[in-house]
Amino acid sequence: MTPNFRFAVVSDLHIALPHTIWNHPSRFHLVEVSIPAFESVLEHLTQLDLDFLLLPGDLTQHGEPENHTWLQQRLEKLPFPTYVIPGNHDVPVIEADSQSIAFKDFPQYYRKFGYENTEKLYYSCELLPGVKLIALNSNSFDTQKQQIGRLDEEQLQWLEQVLSSVKNELVLVTIHHNIIEHLPNQSRHPMASRYMLENAPVLLEILQRFGVKLVFTGHLHVQDIANFNGIYDITTGSLVSYPHPYRIFEYHQNQYDKSRLQILSYRVESVPEYPNLQEYSRQWMSDRSFPFLVKLMTLPPLNLPTAKAEELAPTLRDFWANIADGDAVFDNPNFPKEVNHYFQKYSAISSSGSPTLVDNNISLLL
User: Fold this and answer.
1) Are 319 and 285 in contact (CB under 8 A)?
2) Within this chain, do residues 252 and 296 fall inside the same structural domain, yes or no?
3) Closest listed residue to residue 309, CA positions, set 331, 328, 289
4) Average pLDDT by consecutive 10-residue portion of the chain (366 residues)?
5) In terms of domains, do 26 and 128 share one?
6) Is 274 within a domain?
7) What is the pTM of this model?
8) What start and end residues bound the annotated signal peptide (predicted)?
């Protein structure tokens, strides 16, 4: 039997020491709270009897050496093991520049957090007796040295070799990019596709063939649980974006070999300089939403005229905050029918029309 165990997931920390913070008028990330928010989470997690912690990428604001160093040193002080993978913000360039570390240097910072072999940006390890972690690197570069989300052939072959050697173990996979759609038409949408792994179908086929059911992702900055043929892609929102969430998981197996994963979601409610963090952060996101909403509505499939999109955008100012919160339901009967129908597709509604509020707190029978 697989042992019962408890672990946490905190995603997209975007750790930024104060002197490294840069500003941009359309930035949704409230990176100013990255360190105090993480400290608040750790204060909670260290009170629990955790077996391990997963950090599925975007550990730093933009791959700054000093931010990687700060996080490395902070993780060393934790009373439980921590396992990390790189996000697109952690390794934004192949060669080091004045701001960011080199792509190949990421493992050097995290030797104690999964990367015993610093020659690869992916690894597998035993978390507990009978429980294996496979940590994948979904960051790659095209021929123009532009970053893309993709698993290369070498890594896919390695993955098959690892999975073929698994004997009576529970396998947990973590990867930064989403492998199952969390948004309507995510893999083909011009704004959302970059959050998907380009060759997700290839990875899904391998995972399904070997009976892997649990995958933990980040990148999208929303609370969502998606399922495809028995595989769950559990994506956790960003610690520096509303609603500043993190998750705690409890795995249970009974004497009949029936297993269950209980998922509980929490939010950072306040930090010293932001005592009303939830309210402030939601307002921050809504106030910056106008350009995003206009772009969303003028692109396919809506293709609205700019003037019409600008007219409707203020009514939708909380749209992305509600998506990020998870379990959202949308209905704007005063909108044009096709526009209302489009946004209803983002709702947590089953095919039968009933609410399916599963994104934050649920118990999954595996």
Assistant:
1) no
2) no
3) 289
4) 90 97 81 97 97 98 97 98 98 96 97 97 97 98 93 98 95 98 95 97 98 98 96 98 98 86 98 97 95 96 97 97 96 93 91 83 94
5) yes
6) no
7) 0.97
8) none
